[in-house]
Design brief:
Blueprint: H1 2-17, H2 30-40, H3 44-58, H4 72-86, H5 90-127, H6 131-139, H7 141-144, H8 146-169, H9 172-197, H10 203-214, H11 220-244
Length: 245
């Protein structure tokens, strides 16, 4: 268990480097983290299911500019691992994720605050032409991301037994409320995503897709293929109009 928790903590740490140090590798997304944690714990299927459920909930949470959203990477790592180790359901994992996301967000805020000092020191080193010093300050932020990995390790090392005991003591009504909350949270995630991207030009296509799936019972794959055809027609018409002009 110690080795597994260490590997999972390493996954949480690597998720902190995504978009900042490793490019947009998507390593911090639940759909990627869930299967990896499941593979480490020997339950790839459950890890994949939990990762997909968490991705649906967090799909609208993305880093834009200087905004610092809740940390979905650490939250997904901890929630998936706790659910698998304690034998809890996917619904419990979804409910547990948000509190850990907020805690990890606080650690990220601390890291960014301290990082402003390292940036200043790095700039001073550049002005003085101290290349070696500049390189050291360049990699110092990697150390500032360690608390997220440490948090993950401590929660898993100390909290698995407690989580198992707590889940076994929870009444049926409370577990039912977890299931209801887990069903609502993905809808909130999609609503956040739609709120960012919806406009007058896109709205008609959104409602066409809604009508096709809800009333005409068209499978998602069929709607996706139809959407691709719509996109191709729009691009072709746009190209032809430019040629005529």
């Amino acid at each position: 268990m110690l080795i597994q928790n260490t590997l999972i903590a390493l996954v949480a740490y690597i998720s902190q480097l995504d978009e900042r140090y490793l490019g947009a590798s998507m390593m911090n997304r639940p759909i990627i983290i869930g299967p990896i944690v499941g593979l480490i714990l020997g339950d790839l299927q459950k890890g994949t299911l939990i990762g997909a459920a968490l991705e649906a909930m967090f799909i609208g949470i993305v880093t834009i500019g200087a905004a610092l959203p809740p940390d979905v990477g650490v939250a997904s790592t901890i929630a998936t691992a706790l659910a698998i180790q304690s034998g809890a359901s996917t619904n419990v994992a979804v409910t547990l994720a948000m509190p850990f996301a907020v805690v990890a967000q606080g650690l990220n805020m601390l890291a960014f605050t301290l990082n402003s000092y390292t940036i200043k020191k790095g700039r001073d080193a550049i002005k003085k032409h101290h290349l070696a010093s500049m390189q050291r300050w360049q990699f110092f932020p990697l150390i500032l991301r360690l608390p997220s990995g440490i948090l993950t390790f401590l929660v898993l090392q100390l909290g698995t037994t407690a989580a198992q005991s707590l889940i076994s003591l929870l009444p049926t009504k409370l577990m039912t409320s977890f299931s209801v909350a887990a069903g609502l949270l993905p809808a909130v995630g999609f609503a956040m995503l739609i709120q960012m991207m919806i406009n007058k030009k896109i709205a008609p296509y959104f409602f066409i897709g809604f009508i096709l799936t809800s009333y005409l019972k068209m499978p998602v794959i069929g709607v996706s293929v139809l959407a691709l055809l719509f996109a191709l027609l729009i691009v072709q018409n746009s190209t032809q109009n430019k040629i005529k002009e």
